[in-house]
């Protein structure tokens, strides 16, 4: 399954107390708000003089090594372009203008930027850089690097960057320490999105082709640098001693490991065995069967490996079987609804998941942005102009997923599915579902990991009862990403993650323009004028109330379009780790904040001795 590497956007804006500020050269002088951070709510939770993020321990010791295991491979250090398979954790070498506080739903604080200024009419936003910031080679990091990064990402980066930055007219380095972004409109999320820019060194990239996969270890300014690597096998990052930000409020108590080493495995089972053998120290678990039954090896029984379920309060988004509507067979919503009816979640939850999961029934699940019931009030008013383009049931019936008793007898739903397929022009002949031209319905479910076969293979059997031939094809992660980039699939399992305040990324998920851009996040191929209009309402929402209304309306339209066979979600982060770590004894809203953990020397010595002795 894809892992998007860019932060979800945050679409409303609030700042701290205003003070005098500069205006862009040659511009009028609108009132300006200057602050140390940005929030979508009334005010920032942390004061201007905060010393560290609450989820971090400012006295956390530095040192030690941590070994991680990753499934897949990598052949590039450039995660910003479509080509190549980048090391997924390479972002740790870069710094950003701002950093989020995981304990706040919608807030960021200045990191590279000491202050942020926003014009009252939202026509520009400026970031004032801290003094004495430098890249790992000692070269100063300046506003020119920020401007070059922005322009390069927009011109040569993944399509999602063009969607994110569509409302920015230009980026101007007004001085070595001041970068100003001029905006087309009063899009309230843009200042926060721009704060997410991972600043790249212009001088290092000169003479290199940014559009090609990168094989040289890149230069950054972050808390870590690349120490060693073997493409496709391993990569090691070393903490930068005396890093410029380690005593800043946004850095104190974080990035405590001296070395972070990631070993790459082609198979999830092998990666798990590596963890059991002590070749990896920490892993997040996302397979319910493994969580329920796989952790019975000696190290767990001896207390050397711990299991923890960390409560998470984040929106869980939507995971499911995504249908590529660029394919003729999936252009009809009735066919797509039939695909939903054929899936028996209750059987899966009982027989495969040990009852661990909740069925996902919204693209904004686990949040107040999720639609429910029938549209009323402001949401109904927003949807009413599109009534003749939407299913009538959307206005009169709550969206409900099919439910079974979990016995495996899904006859009622399969009958309903077959009725929909017949209405769409399909019929069963000689136990095969065929169209008016006699062509049988046959498609492929593309997977990046054999783990998902245990979910997909029963689904294939249920589809066969309708006369549909579905085949499962599992490929390596690099090939999978290439196939996604070129939309070369019929159906796949995908995840659309969401934040507390969705914004510009929705253009990439659902916008008609992104449906035509190879490498975009519009995996489904959604190209619907109604969806486009609702996404624009969402992006331009002037306050949280309008955002909620737009999200619920968009959610409802996406659900009633039956683009996905929804899966499930979990309100916890499952993690297993060798007992060699210390971490703040405090819950964090995101469930897990591994960047605040550290190696406990006493526990590590005990663990290492046990592993050397073969437990």
| Helix/strand/pairing category | alpha+beta
Averaged pLDDT: 92
Shape: globular
| Number of separate strands | 27
CATH-level-2 architecture of the domain at 318-569: Roll
Main sheet: strand order: 2-7-8-10-9
Q: What is the CATH homology-level superfamily of the domain at 318-569?
A: Dipeptide-binding Protein, Domain 3
Helix content: 25-40%
Residue share in β-strands: 15-25%
- CATH C-level of the domain at 318-569: Alpha Beta
Q: Unreliable segments (pLDDT under 50, ≥5 consecutive)?
A: 1-23
Strand count, sense and barrel status of the largest sheet are: 5 strands, antiparallel
Distance between the termini: 34 Å
According to CATH, the fold-level topology of the domain at 318-569 is Dipeptide-binding Protein, domain 3
- How many helices in DSSP terms? 19
* Radius of gyration from CA coordinates: 25 Å
Give the assembly state of these chains. Answer: single chain
């Amino acid at each position: 399954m894809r892992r998007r590497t860019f932060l979800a956007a945050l679409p409303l804006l609030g700042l701290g107390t205003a003070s005098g500020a500069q205006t862009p050269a040659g511009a009028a002088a609108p009132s300006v708000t200057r602050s140390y951070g940005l929030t979508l709510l009334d005010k920032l939770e942390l004061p201007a003089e905060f010393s560290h993020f609450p989820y971090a321990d400012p006295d956390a010791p530095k040192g030690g090594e941590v070994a991680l295991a990753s499934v897949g491979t990598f052949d590039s250090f450039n995660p910003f372009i479509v080509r190549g398979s980048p090391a997924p954790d390479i972002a740790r070498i870069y710094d950003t203008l701002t950093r989020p506080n995981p304990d706040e739903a919608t807030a960021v604080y200045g990191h590279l930027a000491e202050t942020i200024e926003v014009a009252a009419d939202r026509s520009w936003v400026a970031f004032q850089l801290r003094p004495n910031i430098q890249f790992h080679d000692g070269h100063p990091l300046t506003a020119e690097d920020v401007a070059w990064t922005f322009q390069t990402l927009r011109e040569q980066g993944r399509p999602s960057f063009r969607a994110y930055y569509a409302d920015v007219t230009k980026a101007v380095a007004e001085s070595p320490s001041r970068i100003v972004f001029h905006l087309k409109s009063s899009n309230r999320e843009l200042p926060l999105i721009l704060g997410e820019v991972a600043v790249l060194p212009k001088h290092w990239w000169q003479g290199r082709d940014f559009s090609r996969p990168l094989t040289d270890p890149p230069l950054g300014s972050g808390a870590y640098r690349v120490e060693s690597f073997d493409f496709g096998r391993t990569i090691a990052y070393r903490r930068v001693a005396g890093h410029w930000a380690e005593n800043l409020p946004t850095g104190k108590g974080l990035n405590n490991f001296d070395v972070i080493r990631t070993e790459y495995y082609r198979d999830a089972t092998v990666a798990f065995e590596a963890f059991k053998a002590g070749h990896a120290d920490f892993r997040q678990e996302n397979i319910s069967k493994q969580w329920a039954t796989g952790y019975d090896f000696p190290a767990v029984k001896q207390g050397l490996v711990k299991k923890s379920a960390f409560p998470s309060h984040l929106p869980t988004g939507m995971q499911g079987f995504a249908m590529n509507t660029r394919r003729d067979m999936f252009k009809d919503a009735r066919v797509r609804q039939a695909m939903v009816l054929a899936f028996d979640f209750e059987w899966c939850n009982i027989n495969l998941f040990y009852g661990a999961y909740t069925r996902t029934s919204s693209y904004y699940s686990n949040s107040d942005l999720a639609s429910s019931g029938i549209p009323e009030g402001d949401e109904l008013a927003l949807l009413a102009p599109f009534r003749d383009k939407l299913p009538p049931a959307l206005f009169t019936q709550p969206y409900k997923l099919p439910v079974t008793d979990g016995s495996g007898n899904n006859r009622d739903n399969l009958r309903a599915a077959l009725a929909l397929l017949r209405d769409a022009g399909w019929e069963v002949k000689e136990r095969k579902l065929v169209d008016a031209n006699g062509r049988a319905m046959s498609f492929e479910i593309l997977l990046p990991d054999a783990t998902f076969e245990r979910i997909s293979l029963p689904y294939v059997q249920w589809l066969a009862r309708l006369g549909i031939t579905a085949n499962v094809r599992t490929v390596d992660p690099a090939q999978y990403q290439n196939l996604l980039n070129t939309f070369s699939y019929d159906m796949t399992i995908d995840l659309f993650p969401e934040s507390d305040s969705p914004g510009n990324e929705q253009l990439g998920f659902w916008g008609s323009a992104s449906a035509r851009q190879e490498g975009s996040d519009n995996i489904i191929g959604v190209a619907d004028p109604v969806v486009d209009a609702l996404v624009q309402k969402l992006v331009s929402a002037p306050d949280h109330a309008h955002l909620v209304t737009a999200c619920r309306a968009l959610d409802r339209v996406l659900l009633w379009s039956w683009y996905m066979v929804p899966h499930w979600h979990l309100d916890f982060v499952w993690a297993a780790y060798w007992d060699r770590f210390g971490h703040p004894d405090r819950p964090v809203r995101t469930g897990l904040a591994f960047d605040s953990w550290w190696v406990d020397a006493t526990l590590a010595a005990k663990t290492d001795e046990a592993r050397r002795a073969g437990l």
